[in-house]
Amino acid sequence: xxxxxxxxxxxxxxxxxxxxxxxxxxxxxxxxxxxxxxxxxxxxxxxxxxxxxxxxxxxxxxxxxxxxxxxxxxxxxxxxxxxxxxxxxxxxxxxxxxxxxxxxxxxxxxxxxxxxxxxxxxxxxxxxxxxxxxxxxxxxxxxxxxxxxxxxxxxxxxxxxxxxxxxxxxxxxxxxxxxxxxxxxxxxxxxxxxxxxxxxxxxxxxxxxxxxxxxxxxxxxxxxxxxxxxxxxxxxxxxxxxxxxxxxxxxxxxxxxxxxxxxxxxxxxxxxxxxxxxxxxxxxxxxxxxxxxxxxxxxxxxxxxxxxxxxxxxxxxxxxxxxxxxxxxxxxxxxxxxxxxxxxxxxxxxxxxxxxxxxxxxxxxxxxxxxxxxxxxxxxxxxxxxxxxxxxxxxxxxxxxxxxxxxxxxxxxxxxxxxxxxxxxxxxxxxxxxxxxxxxxxxxxxxxxxxxxxxxxxxxxxxxxxxxxxxxxxxxxxxxxxxxxxxxxxxxxxxxxxxxxxxxxxxxxxxxxxxxxxxxxxxxxxxxxxxxxxxxxxxxxxxxxxxxxxxxxxxxxxxxxxxxxxxxxxxxxxxxxxxxxxxxxxxxxxxxxxxxxxxxxxxxxxxxxxxxxxxxxxxxxxxxxxxxxxxxxxxxxxxxxxxxxxxxxxxxxxxxxxxxxxxxxxxxxxxxxxxxxxxxxxxxxxxxxxxxxxxxxxxxxxxxxxxxxxxxxxxxxxxxxxxxxxxxxxxxxx
Length: 734
Known about the structure:
Elements: H1 3-44, H2 49-63, E1 68-75, E2 78-86, E3 98-100, H3 102-108, E4 113-116, E5 121-123, E6 134-140, E7 148-154, H4 162-241, E8 245-250, E9 256-259, H5 261-267, H6 276-281, E10 306-311, E11 318-327, E12 333-341, H7 343-389, H8 397-421, E13 429-432, H9 433-446, E14 451-456, E15 463-466, H10 468-485, E16 490-501, E17 514-523, H11 530-535, H12 553-563, E18 567-572, E19 578-585, E20 607-612, H13 615-627, E21 631-636, H14 638-648, E22 654-658, H15 666-676, E23 682-686, H16 693-699, E24 704-707, H17 712-732
Parallel strand pairs: 14-16, 20-21, 20-22, 22-23, 23-24
Antiparallel strand pairs: 1-2, 1-7, 2-3, 3-5, 4-6, 6-7, 8-9, 8-12, 10-11, 11-12, 13-15, 16-17, 17-19, 18-19
Helix pairs in contact: 1-2, 1-4, 2-4, 7-8, 7-13, 8-10, 8-12, 9-10, 10-12, 14-15
């Protein structure tokens, strides 16, 4: 073939290829137009938003032979699928989840992107199913989806088919998104329309109901006005029938707005419209006791009822007042006061207070007696331990004896106060009052050298039947009172003479006429005014500074003397001293002499169980008993004593048992110990007198009783007496 013919043939082949290319492009454009028309027709009739995306993906995948297509919303960097189509599997969610890298997300923010496999996108498929080679991503937004993306995956290796399709795919995506938004708006409009219809319906019903309510309220208001008039009349009738003074006063202006009839009757006129303090109290300024400012809280709301007592200066009568804030008919805050006349009860108040004071003394005395005597027991016990170590001629022997005497006096103080509080339960014996006064004054003078005590008593004994310890306490109280009235020292005069009292002279004191002894105790101290003299014997009344007195001393003295059938009076002038006169019935009996106390220590070697709830009693008791030669086992409380007895009851020769203990007390412990061993010797110990519970235990077979506080000699004698008696019984038994 010639060269010219070859060139013509090449030109002809080129034209053919161009024509084929143009034909292919025309066919492709026709196919694209067909695809768009088909998709447009398919999605126009859809009413479900998700179906729009599903139909578009299905048509594109089939007509363009794209194996896997999906779309979804982007949450963080994860694709949340809305619709998918897969040509190689029945599972529509195969290949999910799809993860988009940060760089890819940044590119998608600018528009569609074509990437290769794993180029900023992760999507896991089983290798035998599908391996994407080219991936097209087209971002989109809708009214409902803020950030979404369509993903088209192709596995063709020979050529990149997705790039030429990108414009077509973008058009299809825009068309699908537009339809999706339209359906979204249609749904929203439909819901809004239904909501509007519902609201109109409800509003119509509300208006109808409101009209009916208005008509009903108008009828009710007419009935209420009629009832209000009747209620007002009833309320006035009730308020005027209450046996109390009732008034209403404006909180700000103090104007009286209402007074009930009983209050009008009390004052003799109606003060409505006047100022309350001028009308009720006849003063020119609000009363000091006025509660108006207290009736409202910080927010201006009514507070609680305030109850207070007071005497009305205009009527001279006593009232208990109940004040509270309420809202008046016109909306302002007012004070409602209900005042009950209590004048007739005031006369009884003094008697009640006196009874309460006496009861308080008894409560106080009972509460402290046990603990106080335990403290004295510990002190006396240790003093006894020191005493046995000191020779009789030792210089400190006198001081130890004085300490023991003071402890005895302190113990008697508790006993006498309890006796007074219980109404005068004392042990009466004939006593030489001369010797008793001199001994008491001597003991007191040893520790108060700044006082010069002068005593005037007759040589003939004057005998009175009294409780020695209680009368000693009266003297001690009067001595202390005189000493405190003479802080810089002074004279204390003591005088006893016989006296005869007639009925008329001392009628007010309700004592029997006859022969008495008169004991006069006079100091040269600061003295007292008349008002103080009137109250000097009242319980808890004291003129001393805090810490110097309780106000019980003279009240106790008054009660003790009265319980002995006598009287005590006081005369004093400020700056001229004070004189107390005591009158006690004279007796014709001989004075009783107390038997001398055994001063010998009696020792032993037996085993003793010591039971007490106080560590200080256990410690000092154990020390004393060991000093006496005994083997000692201690138990703190009844429960521990029971546990010890269960283990060694046969080895115990004597139990010293406290009466007052928490939990398992002395009575329960005694019964339990005797249930383990019927003949177990028990010595009961207590700070209380041998009466009440202690007496009951003694009647159940307890071997003895010792009252706290006791010293070593007293304890040794009690212990030895019980142990020797138990040993004698054991020798007689077969």
